[in-house]
Amino acid sequence: MWTSSDLEWLKENYPGIKEKSDKKLEGSLSFRMLSLDNQFIVNPTLDQIQKTTASDYLYLCDTYRVRIEWENEESYYPISYEVGGKLEATAKRLNKRPIDMHQYSDSGALCLVAPMDLDSTFLKGFQLNIYVENFLIPYLFAQSYYAKKQVWLWGDLKHGVWGLLEWLGRKRSYTNSDVLLTYISLMRYTKEIELKKILGIRCRNHKPCPCGSGEKTQKCHPDIQPAISRLRSGINSGLMNFSRT
Questions:
Q1: Torsion sign over Cα 55, 61, 66, 70
Q2: pTM surpassing 0.90?
Q3: What are the backbone dihedrals phi and psi of residue 200, each rounded to the nearest 5 degrees, phi first?
């Protein structure tokens, strides 16, 4: 849950968002964000904006109406929603589904990043400023850019289980924590029998992708096999126990 310090920070930096209850924040989130030399700066100074000459310079200002809500007290972080209709309007204009806009189809919740990124960040404690400025605002910044250019700034993981596997498989170096958090996320979103089947897959780049797209694995999900191998190694080493009680 957020603390009094979280709420003081919010009032000082984003006064358009108000506390509706001890579990819910809602209101207008106005932000400025600068992309410069592969770095992203939230609410940059005027000096930073005026002095930049980089070719990849990108500066956007925007406002979204959002709701941030704790729906599960056991979670490490809250869930966010865009409640002003901007994402829905963009999706309608571009003939996209909510899931194509990185929103969960069943609830409309925002898929800010892979859940493993949020889990690892807030495992030792939640901080509202980090959640808002490291995850929520960059997500909305990317949405504003996508509405103009139809390109996702951060790249694009596939939806569902395959995206979770891509996250782990794309890491050039990974830790036991990365493997464990991926396993936990897979357990959340899949049935045990399905997960056993997935972990038994042996992909071949020239063979059809196991996701069922019909494309070859190397063109569809080339990162699946490394992820599966890392998960199997974690199970074999005793890092996680492959069973549900």
A1: positive
A2: no
A3: -95, -5
